[in-house]
Specification:
alpha+beta; IF2_N; GTPase activity; Arc Repressor Mutant, subunit A; 6-stranded mixed sheet; protein biosynthesis; binds guanosine-5'-triphosphate
Length: 611
């Protein structure tokens, strides 16, 4: 044995991968992930450390008892421990909530949950086939047969525990859910056909996963084909700065065939490993929260909604609030079509009990009773109305803050680029790269050929990005979606006009600097008592001009006696905005102490452009 993969060693020694990484960190050994290999010498050191720890634990039996995490050997899987141990679950635990007992959680520790995986990739690269293969082989036969309906997600039982797959392939489902502010997937599988390599939608899928900060695993599919060229896929990936592990990077790449099943077990294993590293946990006893995966109307049953339980446990009879609607769970089925009464974290369940079809991506929360549900909805209606009113009041372009975040930090300009040719895309990217500076990070989330798509708009709306098009224009449909989501799409025919727009964004990013600018001077010749406005300084403008709302400084002799604002200006009886030098006027200050002989100086704050 010369080199060993970290997770293989962890498995052999009955230790969790986490623990293994901790030891490696302690030894100062660098690694990319649990699938990195380590030297034999390091393996020996690890064994010694574990032996010492075991001896120390044996010497302190009392402590060893409480520290179940260390003292209990991990189950043979050593990987994903998807759910609560029976002890913390209570007697009510049932199929959808419990799993094979996880080894580790102490009483007050939040238990692990199963990973939720989404599969994305270019059209025809085999997303559906891969999901079908997994469903066929990993969903128990009696569940998979006959009555199983498509509910938007399914649970696969693997040797490493449960894995939940969102079975609407493609990034539309992913982005629709994200566009409503929910993140349902923990891991994204990017399927790339080995005979086709990276295609536009592959890049989009990668951009979506990156924007959501969801870990990615690449499945190179169709390796059974004679013309398959997995090496080309790997090299192409490096051009997107995604470096496969075997090239020294940290991207997990698994060759598979959805047709023969080759590599699918490896893929599932990598999913479990990634999940373990992500340390996914949720409390079945916590406050319920979930997300709608999909909703539909069934001719017989009525409205059916698939909910992914994210936190807490759902029970038949619970009241649920989705958006501005609520429902009471009349019946619940798991993804295999079996009736269940409860469902814990990372469980997709189909619910009967809503009166309107909820949209995918909507967040679901529970309410104590009908009254509480109605109250939640009433508050939401109020908030929505206030927001609508506020929006109507300030229709117009979004602020730079909206696009780039708070002032004073390293700010990122998120852009989606669309152009007519690869050459234009590259030329624009080249120019943009040179615009980056210490303060500005230009993040081209997606650069594609062809008109912007609805998917781009969703990505832009969730990531706060602006869509810039060169020599392509959005279709009317896409433009409409963009408008409804408040996403700006700007189209250009000249590259430098597009770059000017980026410059504008960058310039606008610099914190504005204001300067006080002198406006004029006035001599107070008499003070007039006005029944409504108080004391008005009857003055003569000796220099410059006065404006309403200008800053005012009053000096008496050499002393500044007051600093405030010109709240009103009068010429004879009329209110005026400005008075020029050489004219008499009434100056109304937000101060009553003005006296004959005072000098009033007016100034205003103006924004000075930098650079
Ligand atoms: N030889 C071979 N063919 C495959 C494999 N996986 C998928 N296919 C074929 O590739 C075609 C497209 O597969 P799908 O699973 O429909 O691809 P998809 O990515 O879901 O496609 P869309 O749903 O249209 O986006 C089908 O004809 C499949 O039979 C594979 O591993 N090997």
């Amino acid at each position: 044995m010369s080199k060993v993969r970290i997770y293989t060693l962890a498995k052999d020694l009955g230790v969790e991968n986490h623990k293994m990484l901790e030891i490696l960190d302690g030894l100062g050994v660098s690694y990319k992930s649990v699938s990195s290999t380590i030297e034999e010498d390091t393996v020996e050191l690890i064994k010694e450390i574990l032996a010492e720890e075991a001896a120390a634990a044996a010497a302190q039996p009392a402590q060893a008892e409480t520290s179940s995490q260390r003292a209990t050997p991990a189950p043979s899987s050593g990987a994903q421990a998807p759910s609560a141990p029976p002890s913390s679950q209570g007697a009510g635990a049932q199929t959808a909530v419990t799993e094979a007992p996880a080894a580790t959680a102490t009483a007050d520790e939040v238990p692990h949950r199963a990973p939720v995986v989404t599969i994305m990739g270019h059209v025809d690269h085999g997303k559906t086939s891969l999901l079908d293969y997994i469903r066929k082989t990993k969903v128990a036969a009696k569940e998979a047969g006959g009555i199983t309906q498509h509910v938007g997600a399914f649970e696969a039982k693997t040797s490493k525990g449960r894995i939940v797959f969102i079975d609407t392939p493609g990034h539309e489902a992913f982005t629709t859910i994200r566009a409503r502010g929910a993140n349902v997937a923990d891991i994204a599988i990017i399927v790339i056909a080995a005979d086709d390599s990276l295609m536009p939608q592959t890049r989009e899928a990668i951009a979506h996963a990156q924007a959501a900060k969801v870990p990615m695993i690449v499945a190179i599919n169709k390796i059974d084909l004679p013309q398959a060229d997995p090496e080309k896929v790997k090299t192409d990936l490096t051009q997107l700065n995604l470096v496969p592990e075997e090239y020294g990077g940290d991207l997990v790449v698994v060759p598979v065939s959805a047709k023969t099943g080759e590599g699918v077990e490896d893929l599932l294993e990598y999913i479990s490993l990634t999940a373990e590293i992500e340390d996914l946990r949720a409390d079945p006893k916590g406050k319920f929260s979930g997300v709608i995966i999909e909703g539909k109307v069934d001719k017989q049953a009525g409205v059916l909604a698939t909910v992914m339980v994210q936190e807490g446990t759902l029970h038949v009879g619970d009241f649920l609030v989705v958006g501005e609607n609520y429902g009471k769970i009349k019946a619940m089925t798991d993804s295999a079509g079996a009736r269940i009464k409860e469902a814990g974290p990372s469980t997709p369940v189909q619910i009967l009990g809503f009166s309107t079809v909820p949209a995918s991506g909507e967040k679901v929360q529970s309410a104590k009773n009908e009254h509480a549900a109605r109250e939640v909805i009433a508050t939401r209606v109020d908030v929505r109305r206030d927001e609508e009113n506020a929006r109507n009041r300030r229709r117009g372009p979004r602020t730079l803050e909206d696009i780039m975040g708070p002032v004073g930090e390293l700010r990122t300009v998120n852009l989606i680029l669309r152009a007519d040719t690869q050459g234009s895309v590259e030329a624009i990217q080249g120019i943009l790269a040179r615009k980056e500076s210490e303060d500005i990070n230009i993040n081209v989330m997606l650069a594609g050929i062809g008109a912007p798509t609805e998917g781009d708009v969703l990505l832009a709306s969730t990531a706060g990005a602006q869509i810039l098009c060169f020599s392509v224009t959005p279709s009317a449909g896409v433009a409409k979606v963009a408008e409804s989501k408040g996403v700006e799409i700007k189209a250009y025919r000249i590259i430098y006009e597009m770059i000017d727009e980026v410059d504008r964004l960058i310039k606008g990013n610099i914190e504005p600097v204001f300067e006080q600018q002198y406006l004029g001077r006035a001599e107070v010749r008499m003070v007039i008592r006005h029944p409504k406005s108080g004391n008005i300084a009857g003055s003569y403008i000796t220099d410059g001009m006065f404006k309403r709302n200008a800053k005012a400084k009053v000096t008496r002799g050499k002393e500044v006696v007051y600093e405030g604002t010109v709240v009103g200006l009068k010429r004879f009886k009329d209110d005026v905005r400005e008075v020029q030098q050489g004219y008499e006027c009434g100056i109304n200050l937000d101060w009553e102490g003005v006296m004959e002989g005072d000098i009033i100086e007016a100034s205003e704050m103006v924004e000075v452009t930098q650079g």
